[in-house]
Amino acid sequence: MVKRKSDLRYRRTEAAIMQAFDELLKGSDSKKITVSALAREADIDRKTFYLHYNSIEDLAIYRAKVFADAIIEEFKKSWDGNVETIATAGLEAICANVEGNLALLNKLSSSSRPSGSMEYFVTPIVEGIRESDKLYFDGTDEELATVIRFYIYGVFGVALAQLKSKGEIALTVADLHNIVSPAGFRSTAQ
């Protein structure tokens, strides 16, 4: 992706691309979205799309990163640095960002990654935790990714089960807190 984020025209076009992508995701997964369809929806030229992204796959990865970054920011705001509250803060951050976005995220995550639907989100979250000055994970990146998968799959699993059984999502931290633990995490303050 070309980075000219200080240019107002660039930012407006970027917002139009994201809005169009989210709108198109409501109807199909990202594998089925074409650059032409996205350009029409965003009211831009195909060439303009390619100034921002190399492919729809790149856009999907970037969209997932934006979502993952929001989770990390929410976590940083809500976690007090106490290792005892890490599970709650992590779940609250995920729940806050899943609520209202589940259909979009389900379409995005069901797209092109063969290794699993949530893999789009794992790497940016791992990177965000590694860059955090509030948290240290005593393990490898792969072990951290496994813990993150556990959280994300748990939240999405509960949300989808609620959606299917109740017709709505009533995600609460209490729904998930009993099945997670802060395995391997500790505060950098300790």
Q: What are the SSEs and their pairings?
A:
Blueprint: H1 8-25, H2 35-42, H3 46-52, H4 56-78, H5 86-98, H6 102-109, H7 119-131, E1 135-137, H8 141-166, H9 173-177, E2 185-187
Helix pairs in contact: 1-2, 4-5, 4-7, 5-8, 7-8
Explain the overall architecture:
- With 190 residues, the chain is mainly alpha-helical.
- It folds into two domains: 6-53, Homeodomain-like (Arc Repressor Mutant, subunit A), CATH 1.10.10; 64-184, no CATH class.
- The chain has nine helices and two strands.
- It has helices at residues 8-25, 35-42, 46-52, 56-78, 86-98, 102-109, 119-131, 141-166, 173-177; strands spanning 135-137, 185-187.
- Strands 1-2 form a two-stranded antiparallel sheet.
- It is globular, with a radius of gyration of 18 Å.
- 30% of the residues are buried.
- The model is unreliable at 112-117 and 178-190 (pLDDT under 50).
Kindly list the characteristics that best describe this protein.
190 residues; mainly alpha; Arc Repressor Mutant, subunit A; 2 domains; two-stranded antiparallel sheet; 9 helices; 2 strands; disordered C terminus
Number of strands: 2
In the residues, how many domains can be counted? 2
End-to-end Cα distance, whole Å, is 39 Å
How much of the sequence lies in strands comes to under 5%
Shape: globular
* Rg (CA only): 18 Å
SSE order in H/E notation? HHHHHHHEHHE
Oligomer: single chain
What topology, given as strand order, has the largest sheet?
Answer: 1-2
Structural class: mainly alpha
Low-confidence stretches at least 5 residues in length (pLDDT < 50)? Answer: 112-117, 178-190
Strand count, sense and barrel status of the largest sheet are: 2 strands, antiparallel
Q: For the residues shown, what is the average pLDDT?
A: 74
Number of helices: 9
Helical content band? 55-70%
